[in-house]
Amino acid sequence: IQPMFRASLTEPVWQPGESGNAKRVLGFCIDLAMIAMVLAVQVYILSDVEELQAREGSPDPTDVVYGWILIGLVIEATRRVVGWAMVIITGFFIFQTLKADWFIGMFYGPPVSVDRFIDSQFIQTIGIFGIPLLVAATYIVLFIVFGAILIRSGAGRFFIDLAVSLTGHRLGGPAKASVVASAFLGTVSGSATANVVTTGSFTIPMMKNLGYRPRFAAAVEACASSGGQITPPIMGAAAFIIAEFMRVPYIYVVVAAIIPTFLYFSTMYFMVHLEADKYGIARVPKEQLPVFREVMREGWHLMLALVVLVVLLIMGRTITMAVLSFVNSSTRMSPVDLLAALESGVRSSIPVTVACACAGIIIGCTFTSGLGLKFTNSVIDMSGGYLMILLILTALASIVLGMGITTTAVYITVAALIVPALIEIGVNPMSAHLFAFYFGVVSSITPPVALAAFAAAAIAGTNPMMTAVESARVGIAKYIVPFVFVYNPSLLFEGPLWLTAYSTIAAFIGVWMLSAAIEAWFRTALGPVHRLIA
Questions:
Q1: pLDDT tens digits, 182-230
Q2: Torsional sign, CA 516, 522, 527, 532
Q3: What does each C-alpha distance from 397 to 51, 257, 283, 379, 409 come to in angstroms?
Q4: Which of 90, 185, 347, 472 could serve as a FRET partner for 193 with CA atoms 20 to 30 Å apart?
Q5: Residue 521 has what DSSP assignment?
Q6: pTM of the predicted structure, to 2 decimals
């Protein structure tokens, strides 16, 4: 609407014979009509919630009409902010649910009546108003707004300065700072691409100036930014969805994700170090870097806000968003800054919440049609009961889905369709859910659609596809670590602590050797035989 109003101040919105203006007016009218329909649906629901819930199982004709309107609005919102891929997937599941007798194989079954379909999607809590949207409303929106306020108040700059002060003087320091800063920021950001734009605009030029290859610098930032989504304690807000699906306390998910995240960022840290040693990249003198003590003195309160928030969540308290930016005059926000942060946070939350609503439609379809159970059995049959084949199928499905829809939506879809198969074949439930989530995240650095890598390539001025290939190489641990913790759940703190400690040390040595093999360097160039041994 804002561009329309701005244009109207200087020129008429529409002139006869101007097709461009006519299209703008038409689009404006369509938007207003959809806003009116959104409000109408909400008024209808809220006017008598108890009566609507009492009709569960037998919706009246008016419920059916409003239910279809809401489904149409969710799908249109998904088309606009998520993309056609998720719209097509959702449309397939809706059609299969209503016309299952038109299909063959595992998709064949008795069709679901329109009344029952709308009942599950609109009145019950297994469709649009299911677990994904519940978690989005309870946690995700609040955390995205919280992250936007933090960034607006200077937390992004603080995290970068903190990372540079800790690692900048080491070999390949700026690249290591990129890894650390992106991990800090990515856990509250929830978007790998947004993280790249936020930290990459600073770290990528710094790495290039120091002597890193532009493509490698972009790949490091893309991998580190996507890694922020798997970093505790927030994990891009996905920790809450995983906990809700598993019906376990939030702290269980946070603890389970610690070691896999450590292994992933260790691999990146090693590869950055080896790349610097390989090309003789110089260290940055300490006097040119921020001083850790001064950085903490200026921004400790921003870190404290996040720490207090996580502690309250671990204690089981409700979320009270109190950002401590007003403690220090250098980060104190004006009313305009605060409103801008709130606007930015709400805008950033739209793709996630819309994806959650649309994913709810898919879950409701699989539950109502019985496809979920049949899909689980079919995937197990397809794998022949072999765990490795089933894991590879799950990973491929997650990566392909992730090329068109958001990480959150990928995880929810895979958790509904394939994760039950992993659990049924004997995989630890936490391992199964984290496996699906990790491979949903990895799509952002996997060609041919690697959005985080493409964003980094734009900043670095490199070829997008070659940067995506380089990102897949640098982030190779994200493809391997999930398989490791499925076969060895002690890395998720399942089982005795001595076994967790032993497995962590062994895996740490493993990723160090993997990094040396990928970089073909360990103090000197490694030939094919030495790389194979490593």
A1: 776 666 665 677 778 777 877 788 788 878 899 999 999 899 888 888 8
A2: negative
A3: 41, 22, 42, 11, 13
A4: 90
A5: B
A6: 0.79
